Amino acid sequence: MLNISRIEVGIGIEVYASKTRGLGGVIKRSIEDFIVEEILLDRSKASVHLEENRAVLDEHGRYLICILIKRGWDTLLAVEKISRALGISLDRIGFAGIKDAEALTAQYISIGGMPAERLSGIHLENVHVKPLGFSNDDISSKKLFGNKFTITVNSIRLKESTVLRRIRRINDELADFGGVPSFFGHQRFGTVRPITHVVGRHIVKGDFKSAVLTFLAFESPFENPKVRMLRREINETMDFKRILKKFPENFTYERLMLAHLSRSPNDFLGALNKLPLNLRKLLVQAYQSFLFNKILSERIKRGIPLKEAHVGDYVSELDGLGLPMKNFIKVELSNISLVNKEIKDGKMAIAIPLIGLRQHLSGGLQGEIEREILEKEGLKQENFRNAHMIKVDIPGGLRAALAKIMDFRFEISKDKIEPLKSSVKFRFTLHKGGYATILLREFMKPSTDRQLIKSGF
Predict the structure, then answer these.
(1) CATH number of 196-275, picked from 1.10.1510.30, 1.10.12.10, 3.30.750.24, 3.40.50.300
(2) How many Å apart are CA 306 and CA 351, to the nearest integer?
(3) How far is it, in rounded angstroms, from Cα 215 to Cα 203?
(4) Which of 33, 58, 74, 100 is catalytic?
(5) For residue 271, how far is the Cα from the chain centroid?
(6) Is 100 known to be catalytic?
(7) The whole model's pTM is what?
(8) Which of 69, 283, 314, 357 is the most exposed place for a label (fewest CB within 10 A)?
(9) CA–CA distance, 448 with 8 (Å, rounded to integer)
(10) What does the pLDDT look like over 204-238, one tens digit per residue?
(11) CB neighbours (10 Å) of residue 323?
(12) Bridge-partner residues for 71, per DSSP?
């Protein structure tokens, strides 16, 4: 039986799809060890090599289309810095997906009503913006196909022959499983401080004070000791004005809330509303993601397959690119044979609810799992109405239970820094919404919190 770290269990990831022991190792030893390049539906790819980004676009249009390349930046913060540098509102900048902060990433962005020459005045450290041309369509998640990942796992304490054997076995096991479980990954919740879903839970339950104090004051043993002391001081003194003066400048979101609480110490809802809308939405979606992970974990633990539908399951039709369409149907005795043939032919996929205000639960065995988890959480779907207080609407939806692994390749070599150890460079593509760390955990299998943090997840 493979061990799962407490951090992963805490974000709802309680199982592995593969049974073979992992490689161990470390990701993100340097920024270049984790590369993410966005792919749009037309299969155009954003490259981390600035000179490789070319596009045949119109000379005129409502939106300036650009490539954003960033090193070690959160997408939301990078876009916010760009909007400030240009002196425009944040909502004029569109993007398709949020990329990993501790990585070298390339993605498309659109800027409404912006001449290309204005971008020459932007000088941000480790952020590059290259204009490609104009379009009358903005960049949004609707244009996204997926992401190409190039990720190096270093410091593997195994012989190359053992590494090769384990990778091949795990890859075969995932193929038999039908892909990799489409868990929401670690960066959705935070690894050093995995609390975004906890904040979201408090918001959904209408406890805005607990939401704010969790965001500001929750201590992690893996965080900088000085910051941990400041968080403890918040809990002990609630002297927001004094702590604001001490809080590091790079903790942008904490400082926004502390500044508001310095003026209005009891207005916790107001403090939450000082956060950018995208972040407020992410907090509630993180709780929704936690519930999804719990539900998916429980289905796997009960041995209910993900590549064969049962009565009561939802299934989604897939388009020619393998992406879920909006046509979802519920499996019944009358259509189960046809549905399972379509799943086998790669034309349909099992989908699991993202709990929200308007999404109906599954039926059958799957529905039993969903209702049990909601009961354990003390949650009713109408509780998501509380998110309206922070101007966020969470209607719910459906998400494919499995993520398809495309263009999978790997190279084994000696570790450049530790020559007695091995390195593996993995290359693969995932559809939008897929997390590279969820695939990597199958190959690495960190079993304790310390291993998970040390591994770079």
Answers:
(1) 1.10.1510.30
(2) 9
(3) 11
(4) 100
(5) 25
(6) yes
(7) 0.91
(8) 357
(9) 9
(10) 999 999 999 999 999 988 888 999 999 999 999 99
(11) 18
(12) 104
